[in-house]
Design brief:
3-stranded mixed sheet, alpha/beta, globular, single chain, 6-stranded mixed sheet, 2 domains
Length: about 375
């Protein structure tokens, strides 16, 4: 027993020394993530019977954004003229928000309105969904989203099960939107990150096979979330967009700093990239003069991975003035590389890579998205 104890102590000591070396070598954030995942991931296996009850989309409380009530998605950038009043636009947008459930002991969100997860959803409405209020009536369902820990599991069955479970809510919300809200109007599907995973499945399983829905879809802004060309090619009727006013197509990019333009990112191999400065697929470098403008994110996005998912109510201030002509952008190897943003205030910390600008896929191109959505809607209606 004494020998075994000495061996265990030796292993711990070696691990500590090795860990210290990695930390000093600049791998501190990755090490922290490793230990958090090791000790704080929800219990396995995933048990759907332990999830929160399915949201009833006939209840307005289960929508993060609805045109018939004032919300953060109605915010306008300072100095920018408002478009249609919400509820009066000729086109709707169905927005699927990204992962805000970063803390908690279950694999799917509890939909607790008094939680940091809900505060993150509010942040998304202000900083992401608001990009579409110039063209469209904005609808965004709350759903039992997957815990962020699904993305760092070595057991791939867990992400498949949990994301499939979350998708069922999104599908039901979309069907309710079509049946009860859209009244046959044209629509845009928009999303980010986890929301893009679900939005691509909506396109593949519901929109692409239906001539009626395809003919009503202006476009799909499925941004951030590793959409690959093979996924688009698997659809028979919905291609990648290659112009600023093309209809019935998919727009996607994953944003990285040009400081990493010569790095390899194998997880993104075969990715779709539409340059939001030119709206061309695999678009060449576009200059800063084509950047319509980004918005510095407002409010607090809670990135805690440990602790309690308890609300710390915050006030989200008004959106600021657009920062125009800030970045150049080009597609390369399926990724969008932009001018490095150190010192600009736009960069939000990313545990996976200091070059990855995933958190600002929307804010950095807010005005580009806003103006292009208006342009596509106008062309579609005409």
């Amino acid at each position: 027993m004494k020998i075994l104890a000495k061996v265990l102590v030796g292993i711990v000591l070696l691990a500590t020394i090795a860990g210290g070396g990695l930390y000093l070598a600049g791998y501190g954030p990755q090490m922290r993530l490793f230990w958090i995942v090791l000790w704080h991931s929800p219990a396995k296996p995933f048990d759907p019977s332990q999830a929160a009850p399915a949201p009833d989309y006939a209840d307005a409380a289960n929508w993060a954004a609805l045109p018939q009530r004032e919300g953060l998605e109605d915010r306008m950038p300072a100095g920018v003229s408002a478009g249609y009043p919400q509820g009066e636009a000729p086109v709707d947008v169905f927005f699927v928000h990204p992962t805000g459930y970063l803390i908690g002991n279950s694999w799917t969100s509890t939909l607790d309105p008094d939680s940091k997860t809900e505060e993150n959803t509010r942040w998304m409405m202000a900083n992401q969904a608001s990009a579409y209020n110039g063209c469209c009536n904005v609808y965004a369902p709350r759903y039992r989203e997957a815990n962020v820990f699904v993305y760092v599991q070595r057991d791939k069955s867990i992400p498949e099960q949990v994301l499939d479970f979350a998708y069922q809510d999104v599908e039901r919300a979309f069907k309710h939107f079509l049946a009860e809200f859209s009244q046959g109007r044209p629509f845009i599907i928009a999303s980010h990150s986890q929301g893009t995973h679900h939005a691509m499945r909506l396109l593949s399983e519901l929109v692409d096979p239906s001539a009626e829905l395809r003919n009503r879809m202006v476009s799909a802004y499925v941004i951030g979330g590793r959409v690959n060309q093979a996924a688009v090619d698997s659809m028979e009727h919905i291609p990648v967009c290659d112009s600023a006013d093309q209809a019935g197509c998919v727009i996607h990019w994953d944003t990285f700093s040009e400081a990493a333009i010569d790095h390899e990112f194998p997880d993104y191999a075969g990715g779709v990239c539409v340059n939001p400065l030119s709206w061309r697929a695999n678009g060449d470098r576009a200059g800063k003069e084509k950047h319509a403008g980004g918005l510095l994110p407002v409010g607090v996005y809670y990135k805690d991975l440990v602790g309690e998912d308890v609300a710390e109510p915050i006030t989200i201030p008004p959106l600021g003035e657009p920062v125009r002509n800030l970045v150049e952008a080009e597609c390369r190897n399926g990724l969008l590389f932009v001018t490095d943003l150190k010192g600009t205030g736009f960069v939000m910390s990313d545990l996976l890579s200091p070059y990855r600008y995933h958190s600002i896929d929307y804010p950095l191109f807010h005005m580009d998205i806003r103006e292009n959505a208006i342009q596509r809607v106008k062309a579609f209606i005409e």
